[in-house]
Amino acid sequence: VIGRSNIVGMPVAALLQSMDATVTVCHSRTKGMEDFVRRADIVVAAIGKAEFVRGSWLKPGAVVIDVGINSVDDPSKKSGYRLVGDVNFAEAKAVASQITPVPGGVGPMTIALLLKNTVNLARHSLGLPRLPLRKTSVAAAKAAVSSLPKEQDYAVVVSAGANGDVWSCAVKAGALREQVQNAASCQSLPAVVLEAPGNKIAAPIMLVAMNQDGSRSKVVASGTSFEEAAKQIGA
């Protein structure tokens, strides 16, 4: 990931880590950036510099996702400029196996997900379950449905400092609570509870069934990682 902004770079890095990718974050102060890029199977460029990443930097067959959008002078255009990304598209296209164009690449996906979030907010306001964050296999969905009691309220309890940085925890906790909601047909998303470091809890990550008065009923799943807890409920 090239770029460390709180809007793109760091959230993308956390999202990739939640999907078990090994992530390297480069930025404007990184020395020898070309060497890091040449080892990458997937390159996400979001540094805000026009055509900054050159084709010679890329590993043959790499997948390139260009998030940047910059304007450069172009007298041949009526507007006097044209839009380019953070990657030199002409050079990278000859090396990469897949590459997103600018414009017309990441932008339409951003719009699609904004619309999905709008639909989810509308569904939530009506007491309906959210659309899943990611598609799950039929086998995993059946296993999850059979392992969690229906119409039960749940909470994802996380020990502060567990499973890495705040971004990573937030993404993984969000994914787990959506899996739980879909599996148990909850009317609302499970709460996320962050326990202070001094509080003693059974495990760093727990899925807890809740009573109607808001007290904790029992631990349904637990583990040292989100992935371990998810496996216990078949998610």
Describe the structure.
It is a single chain. This protein folds into two domains: 9-102, Rossmann fold; 138-232, Glutaredoxin (3-Layer(aba) Sandwich), CATH 3.40.30. Helix 1 packs across helix 6 and helix 5 (138-147) packs across helix 6. Residues 141-146 have low confidence and may be disordered. It has helices spanning 9-18, 33-38, 89-93, 106-125, 138-147, 166-184, 226-232; strands at residues 42-45, 63-66, 70-73, 81-84, 98-99, 153-159, 191-195, 205-210, 216-223. With 235 residues, it is an alpha/beta fold. The longest helix is centred in the middle third of the chain and has 20 residues, at 106-125. Homodimer. Residues 1-124 form the Tetrahydrofolate dehydrogenase/cyclohydrolase NAD(P)-binding domain.
